[in-house]
Amino acid sequence: MNRIIAFDVCSAAILLFLILSLYIRHVTRGITNKIFLVLLFTVFVSALSSITSTIYPYYNVATDTNVEILYTITYLYFISRNLTAPLFVLFTIAASGSWHKFKTKKSMMLWWGIPVLVVICSLLLNPFLHNVFFIS
User: Between helices 31-59 and 6-24, what is the axis angle to 10°?
Assistant: First the structure.
């Protein structure tokens, strides 16, 4: 099965342009801008790891070292891809002006954090259980 990486390449270029333009214009102050930069960087890492995990097996012989590198790239993809939605929720909360409510209410932080912790824990347990993915 051939994967098309044109979307990932275009998104990586656009995200790199956005990240650089925000840094050049010094739009790095405030919680909303910081969360937005982290969100852009996370999506950028996701796009790069998707591109790399697609291209890497075609140009490298399958050795133990190359399989470990492919596992690392795949873990990076899954972690960055699964952190995108929670970061977007944080950005939406900060942009809507209700960040102070989110920080003061522990229940809101808990409801936001539990799914994130479950995903990260399942990815950390994947080398032992192989439930999320495996490379054959």
Answer: 140
What 3 state SS string does the chain have? CCCCCHHHHHHHHHHHHHHHHHHHCCCCCCHHHHHHHHHHHHHHHHHHHHHHHHHHHHHCCCCHHHHHHHHHHHHHHHHHHHHHHHHHHHHHHHHCCCHHHHHHCHHHHHHHHHHHHHHHHHHHHHHHHCCCCCCC
> How far apart are alpha carbons 74 and 90 in whole angstroms?
25
Comparing CA positions, the residue from 40, 125, 110 lying closest to residue 80 is: 40
Q: What is the residue type of 52? A: T
Tens digit of each residue's pLDDT (9 = 90 or more) over 10-57: 999 999 999 999 999 988 888 899 999 999 999 999 999 999 988 887
Q: Which amino acid does the sequence have at 70?
A: L
